[in-house]
Amino acid sequence: MPITKKRATLILEDGSQFQGFSFGASTPANGEVVFSTAMTGYPESLTDPSYSGQILVMTYPIVGSYGVPDDEREDGLSKHFESDRVHVRALVVADYSDEHSHWNSARSLDQWLKEQGVPGIYGVDTRAITKLLRDHGSMLGKITVEGEPTPLGFENPNTENLVAAVSVAEPVTFGNGRHKIVVVDCGCKNNIIRHLLRRDATVTLVPWDYDFTRMDYDGAVLSNGPGNPRLPFATVDNIRKAMEIGKPIFGICMGNQLLGLAVGAETYKLRYGHRGHNQSVLLCGTDRAFITSQNHGYAVDPATLGPEWENYFVNLNDGTSEGIRHRTKPFFAVQFHPESASGPVDTEFLFDEFMDMVIASK
Amino acid sequence: MMEKDIKKILLLGSGALKIGEAGEFDYSGSQALKALKEEGIETVLINPNIATIQTSENIADKVYFLPVTPEFVEEVIKKERPQGIMLAFGGQTALNCGVKLFENGVLEKYDLRVLGTPVQAIINTEDREKFNAKLAQIDVKTIQSEAVTTVADAKRVARELGYPIIVRAAFTLGGLGSGFCDNEEELDVLATKAFNYSPQILVEKSLRGWKEIEYEVVRDRYDNCITVCNMENFDPLGIHTGESIVVAPSQTLSNNEFHKLRRLAIKIARHIGIVGECNVQYALDPESEDYRVIEVNARLSRSSALASKATGYPLAFVAAKLGLGYGLHELKNAVTKSTSAMFEPALDYIVCKIPRWDLGKFKGVSRELGSSMKSVGEIMSIGRTFEEALQKGLRMVGQGMHGFVANKDLEVPDFDEALSRPTDNRIFVIANALHCGYTVDRIYGLTKIDKWFLYKLDGIMRLSKQLEGYDKIEEVPDALLIEAKQRGFSDFQIARKVMNPCGAEMNAEAMHVRIHRKARGVTPFVKQIDTLAAEYPAESNYLYMTYNATAHDVDFVHDDRSVVVLGSGAYRIGSSVEFDWCSVNAAQTIHKSGLRSIMVNYNPETVSTDYDESDRLYFDELTLERVLDIADLEVPRGVVVSMGGQIPNNLALRLDGAGVPILGTQAADIDRAEDRHKFSQMLDQLGIDQPRWKELTSLDDIYRFVDEVGFPVLIRPSYVLSGAAMNVVSNRGELEGFLTLATDVSKQHPVVVTEFIENAKEIEIDAVARDGEVLVYAISEHVEFAGVHSGDATIVFPPQKMYVETMRRIKKIARKVAEGLNITGPFNMQLMAKDNDIKVIECNLRASRSFPFVSKVLKVNFIEIATKAMLGLEPEIPHKSSFDLDYVGIKAPQFSFSRLQKADPVLGVEMSSTGEVGCIGEDYYEAILKAMLSVGYRIPQKNILLSTGDARSKTEMLSSARMLQQRGYNLYATKGTAAYLENNGVHAEVLHWPDTNKQPNTLDYIREKKIDLVINIPKNLSESELYNDYTIRRSAVDFNVPLITNARLASAFVHAFCRIKPEEIQIKSWNEY
């Protein structure tokens, strides 16, 4: 428990207020308030660029128990995190555990958030907040901290191109494998790159609007990323060109939505977004189902897909599309996170399938 | 997709409750039967545990109250010809039985399909060597070990691995015969013993201090696989998971560790070929991601019951459906009813399981915790902070503790020793150590409990010290008061820390805290357990209360239709599944009567805490504070306090005092039965006899009273220094010894002395009354004479050896008492009769342990009638008398002495059985035989050892000895017994007493398994047992030789197996009687 307790308040755009205490940076924040039902993996989630612009509410009440690892790097990537910084604008938890215990911990969550300049609030009823968000859809919100200046107001991050904000500025290359994989960085999680490197790839991470079709590559991965999929138009144009070339394409989360848009399908906002580690998807036309890690508020409408495309996976809870694939060509994408980190690792085989396609198309 | 040709399924239950195998299997079995019924499948259940829900009407189509052994199961199969059998729902008992049926070809012979995990897969998980080899195939690490079949080999392996090592016996429940050894001497003793339970033992490297983590895995036949829950043991490896505090989900695991172990669990379930549910236990290095798989249970388990309750995911129900061939993706989430069962619950709370021990009930037992299980029950608490869950849980355990702090001081002579050698007191030793200034680091060094948990405990201690800084509750700042409540402090704890009142004012001051905090708006909130952390809407009636909230999840309808049923809490010696049966039946009757049933209970092993058994389930405390919180919110029509045993019964007066309406017999009348003086006075007024007794405060008074009534007497001290609370003493020496050594006699601590009538018959009456008028009743008799606790006695219903005159007089007494106390609802009386002279021993104005037994034997549901009477409805009274029954029911106790190392397996006035069975037979002897075989006795092959105590017991046993001789049994006897038998024309070979070192020796014969049955009758009712008798009894238990210590019971058993051959036992289902 931090020794001095400073009051903080989470205010939602509908006027609801939740009083708690401040931890992390004692600065105000605003953004879109979303929740995650994941019970573990806060260092990974907080550094996931998909959360850019968002205030994250953890439904699991006790957070911070195993501290935060150090900034060690491996293969040019942060070893323990999904990017080089915390992307959430603020963190909301019920019971922050400052005293932490883990062999791999280098600091408390409070210290880390302070280093990163990101505020946190604890001591609020996260279940009550989650129910509001569930029923109203995501809401804008802001956090005020006792004695600190209040931000001007609510700010909708979804009106800006968040992908552009989190993408790399220049192409970066990782590893030295046999297969040349280009990853379009819409807010790419490090674990996508780690998975490719483990499968004998040289990974080139390119900016979201980079025309990678001019590069010499064996396969393309469209990464996850934050915000509204309708904003990164340049990426969609490049995907269309890449499909002409015909090399394998693998989209993940935002990448799935962009691929859908590229082939003329529609995307829409879900009534209840999928955010957690426990969503199950069915591989269409089979009895095989998988538990997946998910974090998305938009989905592709499979009814708007052309005849050459089919639904790849569906969500077992609400029947929404969880992936699309081309009936004959090596193009496919999934709405969930096969790279996990954090979350279940049951669909990692998709990376194997992608690499098999890459090898087959060489 | 379902297996279309399966129309009839046999399900094996787990039998009597025992340590390591308790109520959780009533829950799993009931869920499975529910799942099968939904599919229109005919179900046959074998389970002699008559007090369970699963053996009630409308659960299974046919119930056999028969032993779950291969012989009886085969007979049932022969008769019923089912197409499928389910082995995963009856614990280790059902699993072992299933493996034997597979191995001896019975399953094949009757073309019986095992639904769910195949038997070969089960065998691969049970046999350690096969298991390790199987997991090595997929590069999964197991604990380095070797299976051996001799003690010499065990020593060799231990030398190779290096001490400390752990010995595990294969094919046993809850680690029976297992333990740690630090050196060769210890190994010698343990290995010898373990070989008696198992032909094979495993010697393995000890990983003491590693974290212990469990995953519950579900897999379907399409290879879809999920982990429903993971759990982390508070206590590190070295303490059996059944003895450990456990939290769910895990708290100290990083994402990598969590998902690494999850991935492995799924890989293992797939490789083994689980169809249904299994549990994977890991040891995890606290300093790296290194791990070992400890074991896999290919069946529903205590952990899976806990996981079901912790998450709301009905594991047993789903496992049964998967056994029928469904895929997970084809089933729905039972809580949301709209989302898929193929998902992993997301918790937005923490649960804490804490074991309940009753080691104080046993004489001589070792209190140290280790790798085998001794706890008799458990609780589960739910909170939104660890501290809240833990403190709630420590109160729920129900042994007078108020949470982590504010308890009675514990005497700990040596903290270092007590911390490093944990006992059932461990958590309170930690509390005292923290209080005395031990640091988290130091405690970690001694206990290896993860520091995260210790930091939290330290936080509770600091908060407690902050509260001590105030003297009046009004001075405590709101923020501190709220924080204390959020960290699980009860009003009682706060009162003790702030006002620190002395004894009598304690309750009033706790109430003062309540009034103050309510005025300050500090009240708890009700939250739902919905399996998905509110991500989707769910109409869940599964609730708990927390102070870590600002909004309720549910609305409260004040329409005078809500009726609260208080459940029974943790299973303990003296209160277990039978009160769950009563609570569930009461809730069902309330619901069927068009009212809203609200259950309050916190025992994860029960059916009453299944959210589909009531309209609302509060999985929360049964303390006055919490029940009042619930009553404040729900404003019920009334509260039922008579179904859950003594815990709710004890709340009656205080609930009434707080203005909560009590249904049925009024609180003041309950008090008149509970208060010894008031009750005695009433009996005198009604002209009902009772044993003479006095409450005395000095030794002189005691001696004077004993001179008046004569020995033996029953002594009940109100303050116990050591040992059991009650004792029968037969002479002045024993009396002095007991009073000076074991108790403190003073004005503050009076002693109740009661005359003890020897060789009296003990009789029970279970009845239901309305407005003082008896509606139904059942009289049953004990096989044993009075002096054996009614919970340990063998009970016969209807009575077979009772005068009609006695029956009539007991009925009259019951009527008078019912009228005198104006009873509405259930009640039970214990009486003793000698030569038609009848005395009342005690009266409880609540359901008793025997209600399910008499209800099922008579086929009249006493609880339904009692509940209707309490609700003011017209119960249907069947015109059925026990005289009409042309069969006999026997209720027999199940003991778990084999798990309680060093405990003396002798019966006395304190109860020591952990469970019971109830069997029905054509006559007394057939019922006795079925019941005795159901609790683990075996019909002896050849050799019987007799040591028959005092003269009266010797006479009692003489006809039995003759009969045994006639049937060709070889009789062995200790010296005096042999001489007595010889004088009466029965030959018995003399075996020398253990301490004589003379051959042939009793001990060697027991150890070498040359004896098939030991009948050892203690010399007198005192507990000053001789070393020899104790050693014979204890050896019999340790070497798994059936033991009987009561002459009346021994005689009944001998007559039963001499008269009836095993093949003559009738295989009849409940509805065939």
Description:
The complex is a heterodimer of chains A (362) and B (1073). With 362 residues, chain A is α/β, with parallel strands linked by helices. Chain A is 20% helix and 34% strand. Chain A is built from eight helices and 21 strands. Chain A has helices spanning 42-46, 109-116, 126-136, 162-166, 190-198, 233-245, 254-262, 349-360, and strands at 7-12, 17-24, 29-36, 54-58, 62-63, 73-74, 77-78, 90-92, 95-96, 119-122, 139-145, 172-174, 179-185, 201-207, 219-222, 249-252, 266-283, 289-301, 309-315, 321-326, 331-334. In chain A, helix 6 (233-245) crosses helix 7 (254-262). With 1073 residues, chain B is α/β, with parallel strands linked by helices. Chain B is 36% helix and 19% strand. Chain B has a seven-stranded antiparallel sheet, with helices on both faces. In chain B, strand 37 (1013-1016), helix 34 (1027-1038) and strand 38 (1043-1044) form a beta-alpha-beta unit. In chain B, helix 22 (646-657) crosses helix 23 (667-674). Chain B is globular, with a radius of gyration of 28 Å. The mean pLDDT of chain B is 93. The interface between A and B is large, with 58 and 57 residues.
